[in-house]
Amino acid sequence: MGVIFQFQLEHGAEDIAVLPSGVAILSTGRTRTGSQGNPALMTFDFSTPQEAAKLLKLTGFKGALNPHGISVYTESGQTYVYVVNHAPNTQSPPSDTIERFLLNADRQGLTWEKSFRDSEFLGLNDLVVVGKDKFYTTNSFTMQSKLLRELEMIFFMVPLQNVVYFDGKQGTVVLNGRYGSNGINVSPDKKFLYLSELTKKRISSFRIVSSLKLEPIDTKYLGSLPNSVDVDPETGDLWVGAFPSGLAGYANWLGFANQIPSQALRIGVKDGKFAGSAEIYSDDGSVLSGASVVVPYKRAILLGTTDNKLLHCQLLSFNAALKL
Q: Alpha-carbon distance 301 to 295, whole Å?
């Protein structure tokens, strides 16, 4: 399979959500301290990949922006963008929030509407919205002090992380004892939930019996550290950004390495059961360091990273109906 590469946005994109029109919303510039990288929300249009990503103007938002996971939800013709927003690094204990924005009709700006806080929002990573102000979100950290968070990152093999369901008013832990819970998403029919667990190198699926009851269905070992999970709205396949080398990822986190190898994986799934998988993109980190997310749109994909680059790839040979 051949690809045409085109770089965009030097500060990468930790997470990406694509609208049916092909406009992608990016959370970009996030760093561990929130003091560098120009944190922002931006758009990228798949129909004009030669154009640079554009900054979304925020109206009504008064706080400090340090965005991580994002999810979009459309209701009654209105598109809402929900954003995991990390507290300033100087704040102790940290208090992450989820911010709700309304996407303006011209798609050039966001109007802030509401901020969600909860005692279960400990160290948020990703979220998936399943109804207005209703969402599942992952805690990649549960420790509250800076020192313990550093230790928690090093010892992610200890199952301390979890998944929280928020019903619009209150958060409830619905999955506990996770190993580095990271990306989260649901199937197009919202019957199944998918979760990536970083240090276990696996993706798990759960049947959504009710909002607060998730029934384990299947687990797939990937051999790489999976990050965000995107769901193809047409096929239901999963697209996962991943690090092939956990050691390189840890070294980068601790400041000892500048490059992390990257992978983009496509995983077939039906009725919550995983099928085959395919590696769509890989490199040693010299082109794209530390892929955190990959999203498809027609015959192209967009790969993001935490703080490196955004990469647009035009797929020259791709069978959308491929049975994995």
A: 6
| Rounded-to-integer distance, Cα 168 and Cα 248, Å | 39
Q: pTM (2 decimals)?
A: 0.91
The amino acid present at 228, given as its one-letter code, is: S
Q: CA–CA separation, 60 vs 99, rounded Å?
A: 12
Q: How far apart, in whole angstroms, are the C-alpha atoms of residue 21 and residue 184?
A: 23
pLDDT tens digits for 111-161? 999 999 999 998 899 999 999 999 999 997 666 666 566 665 655 556 678
Placement of tokens 């990536």 in the chain = 196
Spatial distance between the Cα atoms of 290 and 214, rounded to a whole number of angstroms: 30
- Give the position of tokens 């049947």: 207
The single-letter code of the amino acid at 276 is G
**Residue 169 class from Cβ within 10 Å (0-12 exposed, 13-18 middle, 19+ buried)?**
exposed
For residue range 38-57, list pLDDT tens digits in order.
Answer: 889 999 999 999 888 999 99
Phi-psi region of 25 (alpha: psi -120 to 50; beta: other; left: phi over 0): beta
Instruction: Give the C-alpha separation, 83 to 91, whole Å.
Output: 19
CA atoms within 13 A on the CB side of 205: 24
Adjacent-strand bridge partners of 315? 3
- Positive or negative, the CA dihedral 8, 245, 15, 238 is positive
Residues paired with 294 in a beta bridge: 303
The residue assigned the tokens 């019903």 is: 167
